[in-house]
Description:
Blueprint: E1 2-6, E2 9-16, E3 21-25, H1 39-42, E4 47-52, H2 69-83, E5 87-92, H3 95-108, E6 115-121, H4 135-141, H5 145-150, H6 154-164, H7 173-182, H8 186-193, H9 196-202, H10 204-212, E7 218-223, H11 231-240, E8 246-249, H12 256-259, H13 261-271
Parallel strand pairs: 3-4, 3-5, 5-6, 6-7, 7-8
Antiparallel strand pairs: 1-2, 2-4
Helix pairs in contact: 2-3, 3-10
Amino acid sequence: MEALAFQGHTLRYRRGGQGPALWLIHGFPTSGRDWLPLWPALEPRHELFALDMLGFGASDKPAGFDYKIAASADQWEALARATGVREVALLAHDYGDTVAQELLARQREGRLGFRITSAVFLNGGLFPEATRPLRLQRLLAGPLGPLLARFTGEARFRQSMARIRARPWPEGELAAAWQGLASNGGRAVMPKLLGYIAERHRHRERWVGALEHAGIPIALVNGLEDPISGRSIVARWRELLPQAPVVELPGVGHYPQLEAPAELLLAYEKFIVKP
């Protein structure tokens, strides 16, 4: 993994492939590692970037950092400057959906130093009114979150992940996800990271507006068996964005990139990848 300095901290990211740039923006509570099942198929046609945002994976997890969606978007802007990216497509998931929405809002305002050419969203809280966070997420985001995080171990993590997936993950990925979450003080920053749930409600007009006025091709590829952001998100997308394509993945849960990478790739290439 490569390293990038950001506000006195170290970000880690994966980079590879050739062609038009494609950013793979991960969700909570995992990391850029989530995209590895797609990597071999995408890298012959794209220069791929999978950044672990601060608080996640192999990147630093500073206890005193202000973990806001805007700060995560700033990290991707820093990556663009460091790597010279001028045009980029986005493929985002979960927490990463909201980061992508913020980047689209900034593009609409003329504030980006690069151009987003397309965006595909996977399961995530695109519309807060249609999203149902897990009970554990709500508790961790609440006043008892810091105390609860200290006692959230791998067994509880595995139980939560079992609730939101419909198919097995690749061998070893669940253990690797826990290691990425817990390492380097990661459990302690989970409550701060989960502030994004309240942010989605507070900034709904801005971030939903970024989809409604994106001005570029956007699409949704959604695992339907996801209790957090499955069928309800699909229905709301069709209501608010009737012209934007949707691919439904029956029998797939919250992590299409890990549960159904081949199906996700077919959907992505059908709607967006036209270099």
